[in-house]
Design brief:
The protein is an alpha+beta fold and 124 residues long. It has 4 helices and 6 strands; from the N terminus they run H-H-E-H-H-E-E-E-E-E. It is elongated and about 75 Å long. Keywords: Membrane, Transmembrane, Transmembrane helix. This is DUF4258 domain-containing protein.
Length: 124
């Protein structure tokens, strides 16, 4: 069998295989969160998110808003040296990020099994 015929068979099999893979994964809500930072942020984003009284007071100061909080939970960095501490029957996570106005901010979020609570917002 000539090389061109073998190559054609290979391409036909590859296209059929790609079709089935696309068919299987197209209907699912799959995410590839392999690193710890991405796993923690994804877990916090997918739970009901609540604000403590202290965080609500800071949000009322108007230098930060909920869009900045969501942006930090999407693109922020988890400080694992100060995180994963048991607190109030949950785990405390310290997340560093930036506001839309490029102001550095640190969020302290307590991750419970059924919800996430923003405890504190610190401006740097």
């Amino acid at each position: 069998m000539k090389f061109i015929h073998r190559f054609a068979y290979y391409l036909v099999g590859l296209v059929i295989g790609l079709f089935f893979v696309a068919l299987v994964f197209s209907g699912k809500d799959t995410r590839c969160n392999y690193f710890p930072n991405a796993r923690v942020l994804n877990d916090l984003r997918n739970k009901p998110f609540h604000y403590s009284d202290k965080a609500s007071q800071i949000l009322a100061e108007k230098w930060i808003d909920t869009a900045d909080i969501k942006n930090t939970l999407q693109y922020g960095d988890v400080d694992f040296d100060n995180s994963n501490i048991e607190l109030k029957k949950g785990k405390l996570y310290v997340i560093e990020g930036k506001t839309i106005k490029n102001q550095e901010v640190t969020l302290k979020v307590i991750n419970y099994s059924d919800k996430a609570v923003l405890e504190d917002i610190i401006k740097k």
